[in-house]
UniProtKB/TrEMBL annotation:
This is Peptidase S1 domain-containing protein. GO terms for cellular component: extracellular space. PANTHER family: CHYMOTRYPSIN-LIKE ELASTASE FAMILY MEMBER, PTHR24257:SF17. It comes from the Eukaryota. It holds the Pfam family Trypsin. One of its GO terms (molecular function) is serine-type endopeptidase activity. Residues 1-66 form the Peptidase S1 domain. One of its GO terms (biological process) is proteolysis. InterPro entries: Peptidase_S1_Elastase_sf, Peptidase_S1_PA, Peptidase_S1_PA_chymotrypsin, Trypsin_dom, TRYPSIN_SER. SUPFAM superfamilies: Trypsin-like serine proteases (SSF50494).
Amino acid sequence: MECAGGDGVISGCQGDSGGPLNCFTGGAWRVHGVVSYGPSGCNQLTKPTVFTRVSSFKDWIYSIIQEAE
C-alpha cells in the first residue's frame, strides 16, 4: 500500500479507483500504484489517496504478459 496526496493541493477524487499513480524516475514514467480508495470529494487535507503498490505484483504481472505473447 502507498498513500499520496492529502496535502490539499493534488490528490485523488471520487471515481478515480483503478487509475494509476505515475512517477517520473530513471528518465521514464513508471506506474507505481493503482488507486484503491480515497476520500469522497477531491484534494481534502489530511485524507490521502490509497494505492495498491504495483511492485508487489510485478512477478504476477510479468507472468500474465508472458502468457499472452
